[in-house]
Amino acid sequence: xxxxxxxxxxxxxxxxxxxxxxxxxxxxxxxxxxxxxxxxxxxxxxxxxxxxxxxxxxxxxxxxxxxxxxxxxxxxxxxxxxxxxxxxxxxxxxxxxxxxxxxxxxxxxxxxxxxxxxxxxxxxxxxxxxxxxxxxxxxxxxxxxxxxxxxxxxxxxxxxxxxxxxxxxxxxxxxxxxxxxxxxxxxxxxxxxxxxxxxxxx
Length: 202
Prior knowledge:
By secondary structure, this protein is of the alpha+beta class. The protein is about 20% helix and about 35% strand.
């Protein structure tokens, strides 16, 4: 019975670890998919009359900026030559922004709480911007925003629960070369993707 119980414990531990790994991977991949789809919309402007692209401004009364851990942009999705600020349908919103709030990746929403969590247990996020000229930067100046041509996203996700005795790598590098620290007992996944902003610079 003791041998059977020991085998059972070993299999249960392996199952729990694998379940946690799958959870991290699904979480970070889903977050990256949502982010990449939205960022491809930046600057969409079929009429050529609306002012669209990456921004530092207020959406309603909420200040949003484009920087290392947050991103904001507009897109004229319905082609009516204006940016609709009052839209509450997330799929139709023409003012789009993301931020990291603690370990929650959040998307701007014109709702009561203004932000909606799209992914949890995100330890860090980095946006690295490639401009039409000059080196990539995580801190584009206001004058640089119309010149953004690519955005490299780094998402760093962590397991929900600690695992006794597990030690991850000490640090993980982002696309810009920054090193992200880890905590003992947690498993991590780092995912990096470069998005070409096909509507910028047209």
